[in-house]
Design goal:
globular, five-stranded antiparallel beta sheet
């Protein structure tokens, strides 16, 4: 198909007659663009580009209408330019509208091309810099955004890994196609809001795919217990109940910490200039395109908010203002992000400084547009004991109301009641709840939903909950009361819940530099020459515990990871075990995201007469059933078996030759 002309033919009359725009040419390009668009877009594209009224017959036109009507070539030219502008803006979204199978196939192909390209460069005696240049050219020709600078041998190995391409392609496809949906005005309150239907379906498929993958992977600990990764994930913050409960615990503790010190609390709502909004709401809530919109994505809007917040914090730090709290990022109905923040400061003067600086920076761009001064920044003084009420609905909106089932609070004498309608857990057959749409929005655009400000590390809190109590005896004997107090605050004691306020006090307070908190994570020292799978040097090992940064026990470790886990591989029954574990999980009510985790035995109950035989775990059963084979690593090291393999291979080669 020829490309759309961008210039009128300006040569001879013969050239003009041969190449002038015609309505037939324009309609051909229009139909091609509509066919290439995603199926869910086609009606909208036709409405956007096709003439709104059918052409009138010549006999129906008056002389005045004939005189006022532009010539046919001019009408065709206008249609061609409208189609060209659409392709410039949304052509990439139509081209990248791939399903996950197509993404996986493309990843394999690109990895193979990178391998061949590098092999060719090596064969031609190219230097490392030239090899990297060829890989950089391949990545950029593919149109993928680079997650890391393409430098050195690790970049070549990444490009040769289909898993790396698959990850980058999934991110690229999701953002480009969803950006096209937003630009087309297909994300607004009348269509569900926050995320397009295509994006929601993509996220549901991803969640289902991840759940199936976690259910297939088995890990065994040193005690011999075998679990699926899905069962283990249910015990951590991947579980929405755990994540939401932890957030509410931190907010409640920060509020109690602030109230005990008479700190001033502010609740901030921070929005973006109107040019970031693709859709406006007209009379009666009818969505209409925003003329000021220039194609910004939610990721661009989040970058603007982060930039202004960074300037605000720097200005306040220069004035000596110390603040702490939590900020929540959530979408407007048209996917444009905005922030809510709970902030505490030490006195009224600091609160005034926060208000002044926030308003100054948030109105520094397009601050004179209509409604900016009144609506872009909204700051309220928090009522004592009301922080949970301010933030609970935003946590429920982002995590799911099940997260607050056990964490409702009394605010101003009233119980917080959360009602969010449908509560399915990513069932593709059911309509999506609001928190699922918010989760899909954050996942597509890589937006961090919750971030604390000026409070101790939650990683230290989580690791301290893993530490065994016997390790604290020496700390108590040596008088390290802060560590003992922090440990006690992290755990539940009967009816007394874990207390973030006491943890903050034990860690040193609020708004401290990282090096001044009482505890910090301890990492295993990497072995000399240790590298990752791409050949990059491992500079920081895995977290293995905690260590105080001051006091008599400074530098002494508290070990939090005492049990080693290893993947269960090379076993005959791994597929059957995974399927059975998934069945047991479903039977116990452990659906994806419902958070229930019941106690279970070290190994699942038998489904055959010999399932509980230890040979199933050790691999001895497979060794009894099958003859010596190069597929068993034990046979690789036996000289007699290796000799048998070589003799057999030589005999097979001789027979093939004859």
């Amino acid at each position: 198909m020829p490309t759309i002309p961008r210039k009128l033919p300006n040569g001879s009359l013969k050239e003009w007659n041969a190449n002038k725009p015609t309505l037939r040419m324009a309609r051909g390009h229009l139909e091609r663009v509509i066919r290439c668009a995603p199926a869910s877009w086609q009606a909208a594209v036709r409405e956007r580009l096709a003439p709104t009224a059918p052409p009138m017959l010549a006999a129906e036109k008056t002389v005045q209408e004939w005189l006022q009507e532009p010539p046919e070539w001019a009408q065709a030219w206008d249609m061609l330019q409208a189609v060209a502008q659409y392709e410039d803006r949304f052509g990439a979204a139509a081209m990248w509208n791939l399903d996950d199978h197509e993404i996986c196939e493309m990843a394999k192909k690109l990895a193979g091309e990178a391998d061949e390209l590098d092999a060719l460069a090596i064969g031609q005696g190219a230097s490392l810099a030239e090899r990297v240049d060829s890989i950089r050219l391949l990545v950029r020709c593919a149109g993928i955004v680079e997650d890391k600078p393409i430098t050195g041998e690790p970049a070549i190995k990444r490009a040769q890994d289909a898993a790396w391409w698959r990850k980058r392609l999934r991110v690229h496809v999701a953002r480009v196609v969803e950006g096209g949906n937003i630009g087309m005005g297909r994300v607004h309150v009348r269509l569900g809001g926050y995320i397009s239907r295509d994006g929601l379906a993509r996220r549901k498929a991803q969640v289902k795919r991840n759940a199936e993958a976690l259910g297939r992977k088995l890990f065994r600990n040193e005690a011999g217990q075998v679990y699926t990764l899905r069962e283990l994930a249910e015990l951590g913050t991947a579980n929405p109940i755990v994540r939401g409960g932890e957030l509410m615990t931190r907010i409640r503790g920060a509020e109690e910490y602030a109230d005990a010190r008479a700190h001033v609390g502010l609740f901030l709502t921070l929005t973006l200039p109107s040019k970031f909004h693709p859709v406006k709401l007209g009379s009666g809530g009818r969505p209409i395109p925003n003329k000021k919109y220039r194609g910004a994505t939610p990721r661009d809007g989040q970058a603007w908010l982060r930039s202004m917040w960074q300037r605000t914090r720097s200005a306040l730090a220069r004035k000596g203002v110390r603040m702490y709290g939590l900020r929540v990022a959530e979408p407007h109905h048209d996917a444009t992000p905005h922030w809510h923040a709970l902030i505490w400061v030490e006195d009224e003067a600091s609160a005034q400084a926060v208000e002044d600086k926030v308003r100054h920076y948030w109105l520094s761009e397009d601050g004179d547009e209509r409604g900016a001064a009144e609506n872009r920044v909204n700051i309220k003084r928090m009522v004592r004991g009301g922080a949970a009420g301010y933030v609970a609905k935003y946590i429920a909106k982002s995590v799911g109301h099940l997260a607050l089932a056990e964490h409702q609070d009394v605010v101003n004498g009233q119980q917080i009641a959360m009602d969010f309608g449908h509560t399915d857990q990513w069932d593709v057959r059911e309509p999506a709840a609001g928190h699922q749409r918010v989760d899909a929005w954050a996942s597509h655009w890589g937006i961090r939903q919750f971030q604390t400000i000026g409070m101790p590390s939650v990683t230290v809190w989580r690791e301290l909950r893993r530490v065994s109590a016997d390790q604290l005896e020496l700390f108590a004997q040596e008088g390290d009361r802060a560590t003992v107090r922090a440990f006690s605050a992290c755990h539940r004691h009967g009816e007394i819940r874990a207390d973030w306020r006491i943890f903050m006090e034990a860690m040193g307070g609020h708004a401290l530099p990282r090096k001044q908190w009482h505890l910090r994570t301890a990492h295993r020292t990497p072995e000399a020459g240790e590298v990752n799978k791409y050949g990059e040097e491992v500079k920081v090992g895995r977290i293995v515990g905690l260590k105080p940064q001051r006091g008599r026990m400074c530098g002494r470790w508290l070990v939090s990871r005492r049990i080693a886990w290893a993947p269960v591989v090379d076993e005959v029954t791994i597929a059957a075990h995974a399927a059975h574990a998934a069945d047991c999980t479903a039977a116990a009510g452990q659906a994806q995201g419902d958070g229930t985790a019941t106690a279970r035995a070290a190994l699942p109950r038998a489904w055959t007469g010999f399932n509980n035989c230890t040979a199933r775990i050790t691999g001895e059963l497979a060794r009894e059933l099958f003859p010596p084979s190069p597929h068993f690593k034990e046979d690789w090291c036996k000289p007699e078996t290796v000799a048998q393999f070589r003799a057999l291979r030589a005999m097979q080669s001789t027979e093939a030759w004859h």
